[in-house]
Amino acid sequence: MQFDTKIAVVIRTDLQAWQKLNVASFLTSGIAAAFPACIGEPYEDASGTKYLSLIGQPILIYGADGPALSRALDRALSRGVTPAVYTEDMFKTTHDAANREAVRAVGRSELNLVGIAMRAERKVVDKIVDGLKFHS
């Protein structure tokens, strides 16, 4: 199935494995919150056990270094795409309000990005992540 939109997550490649997983989880929750229509129906197995709904389209995960992450953020914003962001300072916090304060305390050009996520028209996302490789 071909979707009109694309979801992309870009994660800094030099993070520890647990950090990459944490960042991906938080960033995709931002996509789900901003685009509730992308959430599919709840799951149910053959035994009748019910499970939570998931985002109903593929999520592409890219890897990048710091400068490439900043470039992708600039490309997204210049195209009118509002991304979810995760900064290195957020690893030191323990709750959502502190995360927002950590981002608010730093100007955009000084954000120590470790990940961004976005959902937009396919061609727009393709231009934002142009030159990035899938995360390995």
Automatic annotation (TrEMBL):
SUPFAM superfamilies noted in UniProt: Peptidyl-tRNA hydrolase II (SSF102462)
Listed Pfam families: DUF2000
InterPro entries per UniProt: DUF2000, Pep_tRNA_hydro_II_dom_sf
Gene3D superfamilies linked: Bit1
Official protein name in the record: DUF2000 domain-containing protein
Source taxonomy: Bacteria, Pseudomonadati, Pseudomonadota, Alphaproteobacteria, Hyphomicrobiales
